[in-house]
Design goal:
The strands form 5 sheets. The chain has a 7-stranded mixed beta sheet with strand order 10-13-14-9-8-15-16. α9 crosses α10. α9 links the parallel β8 and β9. 41% of the residues lie in helices and 19% in strands. The protein folds into 2 domains: 232 residues, Aldehyde Dehydrogenase, Chain A, domain 1 (3-Layer(aba) Sandwich), CATH 3.40.605.10; 180 residues, Aldehyde Dehydrogenase, Chain A, domain 2 (3-Layer(aba) Sandwich). It is an alpha/beta fold. The structure holds nicotinamide-adenine-dinucleotide.
């Protein structure tokens, strides 16, 4: 580990920030434009790196990583001037003569820690508003996707001076060292256990954090759902990136009357998307590491495969699988699956699903398929979750108008679009008082009254 580099990068970034170099809007705009151009310039290499580390197809690499990021840059560049403006607000009647103003200001030097599942996008999406809000930033990509990590280091070094944005590569040891540094803000995306470590480290220095974590996101399919469409949208959300998506539907809660029909449609959708032998399909992604692969293969024994169930030890691929006959106590129902295995549980009354979901930690996402507005209202009102969709999966993450984040164990804080800008900003409140008159009753010694100055 290059301790000297870690220390010197942070010191230089802090000095750069304290000189006010990142404050002017024109500088921030230029940083965003430089990032946009770099992504364009490196596009072919990014696609190749994502294929090398995760077996991602070009279509998936573009739609979920590169295109996603370019859209965030475009959206933010267009609006950041408005978001950065100080906002005048009313004051209370007791404050007559004064004015209030809320001034967004950058925190300073931000640390962004990224996971491996969307290793490009999840490192750079938070960076967009880190720099739009006027911060400097250190990125720590995941060591489990080493090709993307090395590429990010090169792309960033080629685009930004290290005192503006720098990449520190590495794993637990480097991240632990970074967490000892005097950052002004930490943005973490990853697992719940590491989220706790990050928050503990931040608490020692009272550094504000955003935690984008994971968990078990339920997918409820009610009796009246349009089953063929639901199946397509569930297969899309569950099996993209081989199920290694933080907001993938983790398990299915389906009304018992429509289970068989839904599973038939699901199997057909999987065949349509990935062919009859997904483990041999070069465009079907692989599991990131042998450790995760072995963990997932063990889950296959927790139920009966309705379809799928095949795995390839060499290619680290597991076929899209629906698991029936799963006990709610089985290991596959205890931890976030993060792979292409979908346990199927049934219910009779919607109230049962609400109780089952509420008995677990608050999920990052929830999906509900039903045409019934009453059921939609009931579930949304009675279950706390980070965000989600009615009659779709994943798509809530892809609109910059919706803040994205978790609640409870699935995270704290949110980002994307304006909420990202807010995440990377402190909102400084200033009261501008009049000196034309003074109200005497505020002072301990004075009699009531107004005194002109
Ligand atoms: P992880 O928590 O293992 O790793 C995330 C980052 O933390 C990596 O950069 C890693 O190097 C670092 N890290 C790992 N162990 C550490 C330790 N002991 N001390 C300090 N740093 C450490 O997560 P992951 O396996 O990369 O990603 C999968 C998890 O991330 C899943 O739980 C998933 O749901 C979650 N996730 C959440 C979102 C979201 O937006 N909410 C997005 C993607 C992934």
């Amino acid at each position: 580990m290059d301790l000297d580099r870690i220390h010197s990068v942070i010191i230089k970034q802090k000095e750069h920030f304290n000189r006010g170099e990142t404050r002017p809007l024109a500088v921030r705009q230029a940083h965003l434009e430089a990032l946009r151009q770099a992504v364009k310039r490196y596009e072919a290499e990014i696609i190749a790196a994502l294929r090398a580390d995760l077996g991602k197809s070009e279509l998936e690499a573009y739609s979920t990583e590169i295109g996603f990021l370019l859209e965030e840059i475009r959206f933010v560049s267009k609006r950041m001037k408005g978001w950065a403006k100080p906002r005048k607000v009313k004051t209370a009647p007791t404050h007559i003569g004064s004015r209030g103003v809320i001034i967004p200001e950058p925190y300073g030097t931000a640390l962004i820690i990224a996971p491996w599942n969307y290793p490009f996008q999840l490192a750079l999406s938070p960076l967009v508003c880190a720099i739009a809000a006027g911060n400097t930033a250190v990125l720590k990509p995941s060591e489990l996707t080493p090709t993307v990590s090395a590429l990010l280091a090169r792309l960033v070094a080629d685009t930004f001076a290290p005192e503006v944005v720098a990449v520190i590569e590495g794993g637990v040891e480097e991240t632990t060292e970074l967490l000892r540094q005097p950052f002004d803000y930490i943005f973490f995306t990853g697992s719940v256990p590491v989220g706790r470590i990050v928050m503990e480290a931040a608490a020692k220095r009272l550094i504000p954090v955003t935690l984008e974590l994971g968990g078990k996101s339920p997918c409820i399919v009610h009796r009246d759902a349009k089953l063929e469409l639901a199946a397509k949208r569930i297969a899309f959300g569950k099996f993209a990136n081989s199920g290694q998506t933080c907001i993938a539907p983790d398990y299915l809660l389906v009304h018992e009357e429509v289970k068989d029909e839904l599973l038939r449609h699901l199997q057909a959708a999987v065949e349509e998307f990935y062919g009859r032998e997904p483990v041999r399909n070069p465009d079907y992604g692989r599991i990131v590491s042998r450790r995760h692969y072995d963990r997932l293969v063990r889950f296959l024994g927790d139920g009966r495969s309705v379809f799928g169930g095949q795995s390839d030890d060499e290619a680290l691929r597991i076929a899209p699988t629906a698991l029936d006959g799963v006990s709610p106590e089985a290991p596959v129902m205890q931890e976030e699956i993060f792979g292409p295995i979908l346990p199927v549980l049934t219910y009779r009354e919607i109230g049962e699903t609400i109780a089952a979901v509420n008995a677990k930690p608050k999920p990052l996402a929830l999906y509900l398929f039903t045409e019934d507005a009453g059921v939609q209202r009931e579930v949304v009102e009675k279950v706390s979750f980070g965000g989600g969709c009615i009659n779709d999966t994943l798509m809530h993450i892809a609109t910059p108008y919706l803040p994205f984040g978790g609640v409870g164990e699935s995270g704290m804080g949110s980002y994307h679009g304006e909420s990202s800008f807010k995440a990377f900003s402190h909102f400084k409140s200033v009261l501008k008082q009049t000196t034309l008159f003074d109200i005497a009753f505020r002072y301990p010694s004075a009699k009531n009254g107004l005194k002109l100055m």
